[in-house]
Amino acid sequence: MKVLAVGIISALVGIGILIASHDAAAERIGDLARVQGMTDNPLVGYGLVVGLPGTGDTKQSPFTRRSLVSTISRLGVNARDLEAGIRGHNVAAVMVTARLSPFMRKGGRFTVRVASVGDATSLVGGTLLLTSLRAPNGEVYATAQGPVDASAPGRIGERVRKADPPEGRRTSGMVDQGGLVVKGVPVAFNGRHHLWISLDRANFTTAARIARAINAATGGRPAVAEDGRSVQVSIPDAARGNVVGYMARILNLRVTPDRIPLVVINEQTGTIVIGKGVRVSECAVSHRDLSVVVKGKRVVPPAKDRSVPLTYLARSVTLRSLVSALSALGTRTEDMIAILEALKASGALEAEIRVVG
């Protein structure tokens, strides 16, 4: 049985666990919120990934052959009569998705994601053919093409998700900087009478502090906190010809946010970010071959046929200490994520968990 003292932190960053130590200090409004209208725009398209080593769609996905024939025909090759003879095991039909950032203009580059829609067994080694990407209104705003990165997940610090398929059988991936903007999304601010600042995390106290800071800096009352998410800002007549400059000054004002303890988990990359002040109350955790007890009492005994690593933690310890101890035991990131989610579900984790990726 292994008993570890807590407090081992130095190795955490190298294995995908980051400790975010933020004191209650003033921050820029622009780091806490954004001007409404500066949201990403979802794009989607249907395309083909070619060059696969026999891992593409089979005849059970007939739409892939039809799509390939259509693509070849558009390039000036008459392939209509050859459709029945096309095997297509080196081709896979995919859906391509992306989010177009605001203010991106024609010629801008961005990363896209691809996912198989047929019965392909892997996209490893494939290349996405030129694909049109459409907005919800049906208009084409971008195209995408390039080599697909369907890298296999590994251990801590590498891409990892629950129920990952074995290496070489990845049916989704990314095309790094493979997206090309062909039509920008216009966003006009000059001449506006009102703008709204939207907080990244809804909080009544922070919204009220932002409104007070703006009013104090402008010498009037142009800002009103409408709720915990939105602050309305009235644009004075003198600034309507340069709303961008006016809002830039406002977004550079500093306020002290009302912090809520937060744990951010990225299941795609296997990264865990722990905010300051996250604590764990009295509990006992048993996960696979691990047994962790808060308050120094082991509730779940180890199996008789093997020695289960056991970690003792004082009551109401910081999550930083818990993660340090688990890391010292060689815990995989996916197991760490499962333990954190179980702690939250039981009410022992005194923080909000946000899963991204």
TrEMBL record:
<keyword id="KW-0966">Cell projection</keyword>
<comment type="subunit">
    <text>The basal body constitutes a major portion of the flagellar organelle and consists of four rings (L,P,S, and M) mounted on a central rod.</text>
</comment>
<keyword id="KW-0282">Flagellum</keyword>
<dbReference type="GO" id="GO:0030288">
    <property type="term" value="C:outer membrane-bounded periplasmic space"/>
</dbReference>
<dbReference type="GO" id="GO:0071973">
    <property type="term" value="P:bacterial-type flagellum-dependent cell motility"/>
</dbReference>
<dbReference type="GO" id="GO:0009428">
    <property type="term" value="C:bacterial-type flagellum basal body, distal rod, P ring"/>
</dbReference>
<dbReference type="InterPro" id="IPR001782">
    <property type="entry name" value="Flag_FlgI"/>
</dbReference>
<keyword id="KW-0969">Cilium</keyword>
<keyword id="KW-0975">Bacterial flagellum</keyword>
<comment type="function">
    <text>Assembles around the rod to form the L-ring and probably protects the motor/basal body from shearing forces during rotation.</text>
</comment>
<dbReference type="Pfam" id="PF02119">
    <property type="entry name" value="FlgI"/>
</dbReference>
<dbReference type="GO" id="GO:0005198">
    <property type="term" value="F:structural molecule activity"/>
</dbReference>
<comment type="similarity">
    <text>Belongs to the FlgI family.</text>
</comment>
<protein>
    <recommendedName>
        <fullName>Flagellar P-ring protein</fullName>
    </recommendedName>
</protein>
<keyword id="KW-0732">Signal</keyword>
